[in-house]
């Protein structure tokens, strides 16, 4: 369970998160929508401790992420994150990209790590690309590789930060299909996205962020069907 | 010019000089690179404010002519009664000189690794050290290699200046022969050819590694 309690975060004088409360249960898929600069991506990087927070707290399975005593490297093993920029390790083949963390962080044997990597890469449809270098692949393939790389750590939670925003339109579908597959397998996910159709389809709940505040959160039917917040109404009118 | 007084033992003398050049270069580049990597990582890690004293010191080593550094270094070791032989003094000064340049090369190499790539590595649970070892080091090395090869070749040629401390390296050995035989053209041509023979494999090694590492 991820519990976000009254989290505040500023970059300089700009407050990007103004007291966010959100609880995500095991197995739940929550998508976060909202305009640029609404703080939604920042929230994700706070959840796995990549960004410090100024106030409030974030608990993952009862462990306070930003407590001084928390071993972040250990905590991050169970929180996978995939970014807008896919960030392949360009000096490693696709297989090595996925094997690296299981080997070095989890300390698995080469054989075991390879077995996991092949399984995850096949899962995201890259079983034929094992020895290819990432720079030889399309953005969509690199993004799926990044998803496999995160999944190879057997995370309990997956955070997706606008994973299709940097892709050509024709490549968005293959990545969203991968996310749909994960959602249907019961992975606990928080997805920051601009894909409204996708959000409507896979989410248990959709959260709308506006200027650092979570203005509305509801199941997709309610949020898209009968939005209450005026800003959300405007946002939906503009994106439809 | 084909009627030369140059004997086989003179060539042996030149070869000895070349060995000295190689020894001074090898020690200085090795030590300078280790220091450069350490300083480069420190500068990246602690930021410009805290690394200002180090940066200033390295700037001194980069801007004062090497010859002056060698002479001052030798004077310093004698005032401090360190009793260093010229070889040690030469290597210490050249190492610091190399380190000053290498620090910049390393810093640039590390800075060339996108922060988002490193963030990805950390988000997979890698420690700072694992990120440095498995992601930053290989990527930065690829970027830095051409400059580092250039630095190595430069130091090899600059090492000729240690003759001012009395070391008989390749250039000094040539000078000795020129003075004795009065055949500057031939001897300096041989000397230049030896410098080339030493440099060429280093340059080729660089080319080979670059090719091997370019997997895209």
From TrEMBL, chain B:
Supply the PROSITE patterns for this chain.
Answer: ABC_TM1
Tell me yes or no: is Transmembrane among this UniProt entry's keywords: yes
Where is the protein situated, by its record's location annotation? Cell inner membrane; Cell membrane
Domain ABC transmembrane type-1: start-end pairs: 18-206
Keywords assigned by UniProt? Answer: Amino-acid transport, Cell membrane, Membrane, Transmembrane, Transmembrane helix, Transport
Query: Domain of life of the organism in this record?
Result: Bacteria
Family listed: Belongs to the binding-protein-dependent transport system permease family. HisMQ subfamily.
In terms of PANTHER family, this protein maps to: L-CYSTINE TRANSPORT SYSTEM PERMEASE PROTEIN TCYL, MEMBRANE COMPONENT OF AMINO ACID ABC TRANSPORTER
Q: What is this protein called?
A: Amino acid ABC transporter permease
Which lineage do the record's taxonomy fields give for this organism?
Bacteria, Pseudomonadati, Pseudomonadota, Alphaproteobacteria, Hyphomicrobiales
